[in-house]
Amino acid sequence: MSHIALIGPGAIGSTLLAWLAQNPSHQTAACVRTPFQSIEVETPEKKIVATPRILTGPQDVAGPVDWVLVATKAYDAAGAAQWFPKLIGPQTRVAILQNGVEHVERFAPFVAREKILPVIVDLPAERTAPGRVRQRGRGKVTVPENDAGRAFAELFSGTPLELIVAQDFLSAAWRKLCINAPGAVSAILLKPSSVANDPVVAESMRAIIREAIAVGRAEGATLEDKIADDVVAGYRNAPPDSMNSMHADRVAGRPMEIDARNGVIVRLGRKHGIATPYNEMTVALLTALSNNSNGGKTN
Ligand SMILES: NC(=O)c1ccc[n+]([C@@H]2O[C@H](COP(=O)([O-])OP(=O)(O)OC[C@H]3O[C@@H](n4cnc5c(N)ncnc54)[C@H](OP(=O)(O)O)[C@@H]3O)[C@@H](O)[C@H]2O)c1
Q1: CA of 196 to the centre of ligand 1 (A)
Q2: Per residue in 174-210, pLDDT tens?
Q3: Is 176 tagged catalytic?
Q4: What's the whole-model pTM score?
Q5: Pocket test for ligand 1, best of 12, 128, 262, 294 (most atoms within 8 A of CB)
Q6: How far apart are CA 114 and CA 84, in angstroms?
Q7: Atom nearest to 98 CA in ligand 1
C-alpha cells in the first residue's frame, strides 16, 4: 500500500491522481486550494472517476505519506510547500510535476534536495471545473533513472500512461523547454499554434529555441540543431486552434509561467555568458502584459 498526497489537483494533478486512484493498493489524498467532492477525467480511453481524501489545509493532514506529488504551477511553489511540514517524514519522496528545468532548485528552499524527484509531464489536459478535467491526448511521463524514478514509474503500472525512465533526464527536460519556450509567441500574439505558419513568426520562434539550445548545451544537455525546425513543424502540425497553456493562462487572466519557461533561459544564459535577446524580449513583453492584467504575478 502506497500513501500518496497530491498538492495542486488541476489539469495535470487531477489526471495523474485519478489514474493512481484506480489502483486499490494506493491510498490517495488531494491537497486542494479550491475544494471539490470528486475527480472526473475524460481520458481518450474512457471517463475515470476518483474519490481521494480531500484535504483543505495542512490541519487536515493525518501524518507523513510515502509520496508527495506537486502539480501546482511553478509560481505557486511557496504555497505548495506550506503542506510539506505535515506531509513529509523521513521516508517521504517528493515528485515535482512541473514545466521547466529547475524542479530541484525551485523546491530546494523547502525540502532536502535528495528527496526531490523532477518529473516531466507531456499530457495535454485542461480543467473545465474544480476536479473536472479533459485529457485531450495520450500522456507521457519522464523521470530520471534512479531508485526514486523507478519507484515513481512503478506507481503508474497498469495505467495507460507511458512512463519513461530516462538515462539522460537533463536533455529530456531541456527538449521539453525547447517546445514550451516558443509557446510564448502565441501568448503575446493571442494566436493559436497555427501562427507558426507565418514565416516571420516561425523565425522568431526558431530564434527563441536556438537560444534555449545554446544555454541547454552549456548546462550539459545534448540537443541537436534540428530541434528548432522540428518544434516549429510540431506547432504547424498541431490542430490549428490548439492553445498552449501559457496562451490559455493569458486568455483566462491567470498568471503565466514566464520565468519557468523563458526567464530561466535568460538567467542561465547570463551565467554562461550567452546572449539571449529573443527570450529577454519575450520576458519583457509578457511581464508588461501581465502587469496590466494580474498585478504583476509573472513567474
Ligand atoms: N495542462 C497541461 O496540458 C500541461 C501539460 C504539461 C505540463 N504542464 C505543467 O504542469 C504544471 C501544472 O499545470 P496545470 O495545467 O495542471 O495547472 P492548473 O490546471 O492551473 O492546476 C494547478 C492547481 O494547483 C492548485 N494550487 C495552487 N496553489 C495551491 C496550494 N497552495 N495548495 C493546493 N493547491 C494549489 C490550483 O488550485 P485552484 O483550483 O485554486 O486554482 C490548481 O488546482 C505546470 O507546471 C504546467 O506547465 C501542464
Answers
A1: 26
A2: 999 999 999 999 999 999 999 999 999 999 999 999 9
A3: yes
A4: 0.95
A5: 12
A6: 15
A7: 45
